Input
Amino acid sequence: MQNLRELPKLRDSLSYLYLERTRIEKKASGITFHHPEGEVGVPIANLATLMLGPGTTITHAAVKELATHGCTITWTGEDAVRFYASGTGETRSSKNLFRQAEAWADAEKHLRVVRRLYEVRFPEPLKPSLSIEQIRGLEGVRVRESYARASRETGVVWKGRSYKRDSWADADPINRALSAASACLYGVCHAAIVSLGFSPGLGFIHIGKQLSFVYDIADLYKASTVIPAAFKAVAETPEGVERRVRKLLRHLFWQEKLLLRISRDLDRLFSDEYPDHEEDPYESDSALPGSLWSPNGSAPGGIQHACDDPQEDTEEPAR
Output
């Protein structure tokens, strides 16, 4: 059974909030941002990630308050379509990072995680005889069918995925909507990964980038969230699709209980290899000193050992 004590607030959190061209400040036990019609309060206790777009300023006190509530801050490009940096998550334990790193470094375990990442996308179990190349082929068919189905259901013309970062305005509305929606999904997945103590850079299917694991996890949900939301937004009107697709996604993420799904799926990726779910002392006491590494195991940290104890009588070493 999954241990959700690792991050009790994540499963109930709102997904994200994107802000741009505003000032964010701490007020009481929360934060506020400035809107043309006045000051707006933000329920950060139930927020997983705050995405800051161009033109935002944020005070030191506001950042501290967000960190205290376990809300990950990400700095993005306009309409959240590029990722620049992020803050830390809520967990103070490295247990999940150890699990991920060991599975990543072991070729056999790595392959098992890759197969699991693919298997959860299909309604029927994949045959054990299928190679990774064959599974990728099936995944390509699944994704193409998702685009084609959304096009048929909404009437939005689909000519294929096309996006150039340096020519955002040249893309058609559906590609802009898909890019903006994908950026939001990446932000939420990134927040969940960091908050649960995993590394966003240790990817299994995707490798070589600091967000490789984010792409691995986001691909589990694109067909059920990003694609339908983007096509629906464009079907309503091609104007202002970036802003409207974010609103559609926020409701869809809540409806799909996405953060709870991410938490469970992350746990299942490694649970067979590491079934131990004992309570982690670092989750209840973030100031607790960590252990000290030893070739024969580990020793408690934050204490003095042997002759380091000033109360211990020892002979003065010969000079």
Confidence is low (pLDDT under 50) at residues 1-9, 304-319.
